[in-house]
Amino acid sequence: MLTTAPLKIVAVSAGLSSPSSTRLLADRLAEATRERLAADQDRTVEVRVVELRDLAVSIANHLVTGFPPADLRDAIDAVTGADGVIAVSPVFTASYSGLFKSFFDLIDNTALTGKPVLIAATGGTPRHSLVLEHAMRPLFAYLRAVVLPTAVYAASEDWGAPGDEYAEGLPSRIRRAGGELASALTGHTRSGASREATLDDGEDGLVPFEQQLAGLRVGP
Fold first, then answer.
1. What positions does the domain NADPH-dependent FMN reductase-like occupy (predicted)?
2. Superfamily of domain 7-190, CATH level 4
């Protein structure tokens, strides 16, 4: 009987307190993805949560020395080896946290190529929700990840709120985002081997700019 390997999801939480709303949001997004995969695809899922709070000293040491301690190396390998990533940061000074940025600065800018990433953030007020679009989405686009359409922001007032006629409640947004990640994992994610083959073909098959310009030239 053919067995299918479990899908690996890694949730990166940059919350600083324990417990934290950032970790809670990461857990709920992972569970929503797991439930959708179990219901629609009958797929088993392995979920690992990387708490950046526990790696803060190792991250700082790596930035200074250039050598990752064992715990940080393990976390980086988990993220780059996952089938899908959930990335959640609290909002500080209208952007993601410095700890969150420092961790992803340590990941090679091709290591997430083609990997589906669900982005999310937490904050005290809804006014900071645009951090998902002006900060987090460009960060993962630079890392060549496939950033899912639905990003989830949870303000303090969203926890336990049912939503209204103009906006969905937080549980609904979590379910929709989890469904998108589940669909990406089963229908649109390439294996690591196929990603490497594409890269070997020359920068993801992109046509050099000079060649594109040559194609626009009008003959005599």
1. 8-159
2. Flavodoxin domain (3.40.50.360)
Tokens of 51: 């708490």
Question: Can you tell me the mean pLDDT for 173-200?
Answer: 68
Measure the CA–CA gap between 215 and 201, rounded to whole angstroms.
Answer: 21
Is the Cβ–Cβ distance between 26 and 49 less than 8 Å? Answer: yes
Return the H-helix or E-strand segment holding 37: helix 21-40
Extract the tokens encoding 33: 């993805």
pLDDT at 162: 62
pLDDT of residue 19: 85
Pick the closest to residue 111 from 82, 138, 89, 87 (CA basis): 82
- For the whole prediction, is pTM greater than 0.90? no
Strands (E), the chain: 7-13, 45-51, 84-92, 95-96, 116-123, 146-147, 152-155
